[in-house]
Design goal:
Helix content: 10-25%
Strand order of the largest sheet: 4-5-6-7
Number of helices: 1
Strand content: over 45%
Order of helices and strands: HEEEEEEE
Radius of gyration: 12 Å
Oligomer: single chain
Number of strands: 7
Largest sheet: 4 strands, antiparallel
Structural class: mainly beta
Length: 77
């Protein structure tokens, strides 16, 4: 449970800049990822999340079978 919480904290540091569900692309922290690609975690962590789902304003990331949802921030929020 502690490891899952640590992973969740890492995901919260990501910024979802854009999500294009039709093209299955997402821009996370300024880097474009295609569904199925892996991306390095922040702060030098050696954890690679896989982009598994792309929706209109949200994506799902996965690490070792654990799913983490990342949403675009709401305008003005």
């Amino acid at each position: 449970a502690r490891f899952h919480a640590e992973l969740q904290a890492l995901v919260r540091e990501f910024s979802l800049d854009a999500a294009m569900s039709g093209a299955e692309l997402a821009v996370i922290d300024g880097t474009t990822y295609r569904k199925g690609e892996r991306g390095q975690a922040l702060n030098g962590a050696r954890i690679e999340f896989t982009l598994t789902e792309v929706n209109e304003r949200a994506v799902a990331l996965e690490y070792e079978g654990r799913r983490f949802d990342l949403q675009m921030s709401t305008p003005g929020g």
